[in-house]
Description:
By secondary structure, the chain is an alpha+beta fold.
Amino acid sequence: MHAKERAIAPAFRRVLGAEIVVPALDTDTLGTFSGEVPRPDALVETALLKAEMVFDALPDVDCALASEGSYGPIERVPLTPGGVELLAFVDRRRGIRHVETMPTHRTSWRLQRFAAGDPERLLALKGMGFPEFGVFVVCSSDMSQPIKGLSTVEAVIDAMDREARRSTDGLAVLYSDMRAHKNPLRMKVLRAAGFKLAKRLQQLCPRCRAPGWGPIGSRRGLPCDACGEPTHWIDFEIDGCSVCGHAASRPRKDGRTTAPRLSCRACR
């Protein structure tokens, strides 16, 4: 619905030689960035639900790909926005259900409140990258009916004045349209996520040869270089297969075999 294939298809074509076909689906039934339709479940589960919708629309295909994203203020740093992109890949013939995540601080997400006639609105719009980056406008006391598809500064200002006047607190909310086709920066993050997933699917399990072999976790406990006691530093990485369950450990990428003394509780 939001042209994400423009960001993701090049990675699948270049890395896997695979073409992405876009079915006609109303994925807004599984949640909207504007907030009037809530997600039915958490990010991972919702993305997998989207992938399953593909099989209903295209019964002859075995592989489905779906995207889900979440953006907003970071919980521990409320003035700093961030987000995460999630790609779910399902191969129903091989029994693969793989989810790749891409956390990011590269986002244009903003949310601000203004009274009718506030001169700061124009500066806010410019700071949000409008019109290249889309925006939503909604009444502060009733956020169930956001106004979308605003393409001119005049249309945004008129909508903000109108929503502010009908709000019980006299404020209108101006916030970023994070739908992919309205947000070039999110498209870049999706492109990176697409390459990350495609390269993961390129790796085959050494035991069953299923696609998707790669990192599934890590184990902490790298020994202190002074006393040899385990520390909170990662000791080794773990790769695994989602189909047969095979897993194997590998050394840290940086080649470290000990942790610095300052990281050791026993040496403090």
